[in-house]
Amino acid sequence: MFRPMVLPASEQRRALEIIVEGRRVPAREGETLAAALLNAGVVQFRRTPVSGQPRAPLCLMGVCFDCLVEVDGAQNVQSCMVEVREGMQVRLPDGARHVGDSA
Amino acid sequence: MNSDTHDLIVIGAGPAGISAALTAASCGLKTVLLDEQSRPGGQIYRNITAVPPTIAALLGPDYRHGESLAARLSNSSVELRFGTLVWDVARDLTVTAQQNGRSFQVHAPQLIAATGAMERASPLPGWTLPGVLNAGAAQLAMKSAGSVPAGRVVLAGGGPLLLLVACQLLDAGVTLAGIVETSPAANRWRALRYLPAALGAPAYLAKGLGMLWRLRRAGVPMFSAASALRVEGSDRAQALTFTARGAAHRLDAEVVLLHHGVVPNTQLSRLLRVDHDWDSVQLTWRPRVDGWGETSLAGFRITGDGVSIAGALAAEPAGALAALGAAQALGRLTAPEAERRAAPLRGTLQQQGHIRPFLDTLYRPPEWITDPSDETVVCRCEEVTAGRIREMARLGCQGPNQTKFFSRCGMGPCQGRMCGLTVTQILSSALGKEPEDVGAYRIRAPLKPVPLASIAALSNPIAVDIAETPEPT
């Protein structure tokens, strides 16, 4: 949905990898997780617990809570407010959780 | 918590908060500045200390102005705590915050909230689809990650930021499929009477005309006084449809950027139950403050765009005024000394204010944004429509806290940030009452979700010592 702007080599930030739903996704040091997911072509960040509608970020400034994902086991993390780290494990929420779902 | 850890706590490291903290430090106040982000700048100067030069150049001198503010901050005696989420403030001004997954408390007799603004929600059919973002979000993606929308982009709404973002995206090589302005035609006539005052701020007017000229020269299709906007798509945005000059239009786009101005973020002032007034021009709440930023709660001050939208350059003198008020209240500054320092700041504020009545009137959002159609989702979290709110008004609900109780509208993770203003305005119109009489959501801690383990850290006195080891940035 987004793409990185073309920058001179001297200004490019170090590449790293995060793991999204078990898949390796390239990211760059210093960018937010939301930006990394948007750059990687992730269109749907989650499905809503109410009706299962697809959602993605609206505000990118910590207000709308539509970019919530699971980060290293912690649920409902605002992906626009955290920076990527090498090896970060990300899962995209799929609707409401039910009793008996694995953690 | 009773014992003071500081003389002054400032929340928010945008231009108002930085200016407040610097001024307070210059008065000898032991000051701590808390911000959720990992670097100073707020949203307007987001990532200013780490942005690649190419992107800073593209964003322009107004953005780069933040460099000097950030530099002065890092050379000051202000204690800086970034990556720090404030999630509660008690009536005795004890601030509870979380850093590195642990909560801690700080207390000072004076507290300045410089928590800034957010983009007004633009509820219209289809606005919950992936690919629909606020226009400001596209700018934040450039600032914070050097990212721009891919594919065809449509911008819709009204306001200076809409045009600015459009120009910046053009400069970044993005394909703009169109700019769909929604400001009603009548706004132009109403704004004319404020034009003479606006001529007192010629730089702003020149910048606005320059942006319009740039967009026209680039051949971007532009539509004005559009209505009946709808984002089409099943699992993601595919097109924006609308009516302009009596004709139906459809613009295919992968990304639709919406903007209808910015409004104060009142989450913290509502938490503290201070007095608010309805601003019938900017169509938003504003916390009631005196000339030194002090609210109806003694010692609690709010400054910058968190009070009323006036922009980044007005936020600096406003922040300084709040700090002078705090220093005066603490007996570190005599009243004549505070007045002497305040005079030039008030002059700058007044100068910055010349353009506002013109802009606020010209870009007043259309009624179908403030009082949207029945089918439109207003509460994105709990997926409650405008029609459902009206139905509850018919059934006897008198305010947003009642509609929340019966429908969960405003009860989701965003805690009413996105729908609060809209619900108040829908109820105001449906009940025939003024927004003041309809009221706003009651806000409670935690202001953002925090894990139980973080709260548990409060019971461990070691947590307070985290203050001695600020997180590296």
**Approximately how much helix is present in the residues of chain A?**
under 10%
Q: Biggest sheet of chain A, open or closed, and with what strands and sense?
A: 5 strands, mixed
Average pLDDT figure of chain B:
95
SSE order of chain A, one letter for each helix or strand:
EEEHEEEEE
The percent range for strand residues of chain A is 25-35%
The counted number of beta strands of chain A is 8
Nearest-integer average pLDDT of chain A: 94
N-end to C-end Cα span of chain A = 29 Å
Largest contact between protein chains? A-B, 45 and 51 residues
Radius of gyration of chain B: 22 Å
| Helix segment tally of chain B | 18
Number of strands of chain B: 23
Derived from helix and strand composition plus strand pairing, the structural class of chain A reads mainly beta
Description of the molecule:
The complex is a heterodimer of chains A (103) and B (473). Chain A contains one helix and eight strands; from the N terminus they run βββαβββββ. Chain A has 103 residues and is mainly β. The longest helix of chain A has 7 residues, at 33-39. Chain A is globular, with a radius of gyration of 14 Å. Chain B is built from 18 helices and 23 strands. Chain B is of the alpha/beta class. Helix content of chain B is 37%, strand content 21%. Chains A and B meet through β1, α1, β5 and β7 of A and α2, β9, α4 and β10 of B.
Blueprint (SSEs and pairs):
The complex is a heterodimer of chains A (103) and B (473).
Chain A: E1 2-4, E2 15-20, E3 23-28, H1 33-39, E4 46-47, E5 54-55, E6 68-71, E7 74-78, E8 89-91
Chain B: E1 8-11, H1 15-26, E2 31-34, H2 53-59, H3 61-74, E3 79-81, E4 84-89, E5 95-99, E6 102-106, E7 110-113, E8 117-119, E9 132-134, H4 135-145, E10 147-149, E11 152-158, H5 160-171, E12 175-181, H6 186-192, H7 195-198, H8 202-217, E13 222-223, E14 227-232, E15 239-244, E16 247-252, E17 255-260, E18 262-264, H9 267-271, E19 276-279, E20 284-287, E21 300-302, H10 312-329, H11 335-353, H12 356-362, H13 367-370, E22 377-379, E23 384-385, H14 386-394, H15 400-407, H16 420-431, H17 435-438, H18 452-456
Parallel strand pairs in B: 1-2, 1-7, 2-3, 7-21, 9-17, 11-12, 11-17, 12-13
Antiparallel strand pairs in B: 4-5, 5-6, 8-18, 14-15, 15-16, 19-20, 22-23
